Input
Amino acid sequence: MELLDASFGALADPTRRAILARLALGEATVLELAKPFQMTQPAISRHLKVLETAGLIEQRVDGTRRPRRLAKPALDNIDQYLDTLRRALAANYDRLDQVLAAMDRNPDSTPNQRKTGGSK
Amino acid sequence: MELLDASFGALADPTRRAILARLALGEATVLELAKPFQMTQPAISRHLKVLETAGLIEQRVDGTRRPRRLAKPALDNIDQYLDTLRRALAANYDRLDQVLAAMDRNPDSTPNQRKTGGSK
DNA sequence: AAGTTATATAACTAAGACGTTATTTATGCA
DNA sequence: TGCATAAATAACGTCTTAGTTATATAACTT
Output
């Protein structure tokens, strides 16, 4: 699943998330996107390429401009992955040893927690 | 939202996602985690620190071992963020210009697409 | 055709990520 | 005590990322 590599990697950068936030309001060109972020146009173009490779945005051709907008495939993919994690998490919390572990890790009940014998 | 930086960054690495997949089956120690991945123990320890900083896993103390398990906060946080993107995406797709854009970007209908006279 | 505008690409630099081996710290055990 | 084991940390090399400036490409404008 290397699309996940690209997708999560793309989302890990605050500038790229800001770009997505801007695109959430509607499509925008490179220069429009570059304006609010004090950063050069080439830098934004690179970020856009990363986002597009990740499947998070799409291009459109309009003369010399290339307005970008949000795309869905990556989001669906990510959602699906996170779902498996959520499920596993829920399942683990239902297990007894997880409950015991939770008690064990509470510093109030056992100052210096152990479990083999009980000393130090 | 720099927790998102950490969370998405953590999920961008395939080794770390594999670690999470293993932890989805239940808690495991560093050495147990290191075994399947042919990688040294220090490397795994670093990955675990990244995952923990991101809020994706937790530790437990058991003598000299530190079994890890999945944690929820980061997932909730991520879910919430993705939700805003999903919403924006849906909203954008409801707009007329987005629909026109979709047609415009279809290479079959217009070989060298323009639009100065059409929408915008 | 010539100039302008929108974007992409190239070449470079600085910083960060990810792996290694060697060593340290902390606990358990004889 | 002293040795063994689990995990963390240090120091280091290498590859990747994110930014810069300079330049190239493509399309619109006159």
